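Incident review: delayed structure delivery

Summary: a single-chain prediction request sat in the queue longer than the usual turnaround. Root cause was a stuck worker, restarted by the on-call engineer. No data loss occurred. The affected request and its eventual output are reproduced below so the record is complete for anyone auditing the incident later.

Affected input:
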Amino acid sequence: MKGIIYTRVSSDAQILGTSLDDQEARCYKYCAENGIEVLKLFKEEGESAKTTNRKMLLEAMEFCRKNKGKIDAFVVWKVDRFARNAEDHFAVRKILLDYGVSLRSVTEPIGENPSEKLFETMLAGFAEFDNAIRKQRCSNGMLARLRQGIYPWKPPIGYTPLGAKKRGEKKTEPDPINEK
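Output delivered after worker restart:
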């Protein structure tokens, strides 16, 4: 059996940390334990899984298309590394299946039997739900700041930035009006 590995992190902090290396090591271990010869590793650094418009994901899919019938498995650490939108998850999964490639998760029991399909559907839904909750929390936080008179972005023309972002801090007070 032959396969490819796809790893992904969404932030610079994760790129600098150990998350990608850990995903990669665990995916290689899974492949070795399951008799999957790894043909190629696709490493996505600092990309959100909100959409499928990701350079390495598209390259991985193209690799599968060009090698149709020669690749059996598309291995990911977790389903949410693959997609954070259920519609995209199943659209890409269908394309891979058309190429003869099955999606494999190192940490989750997904597959073709009814219970594995149900579990995969729930995981894809939870990944989308988690993304929606994060977005809602972020928006609520920005609205709370605005109600406090603190503009959470770069200040508008006529205001002087306090430089909190440059210091790696969050704004705690409104930017002052530029008196010049």
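Verification: The longest strand covers residues 37-45.
Action items: add queue-age alerting; document worker restart procedure.
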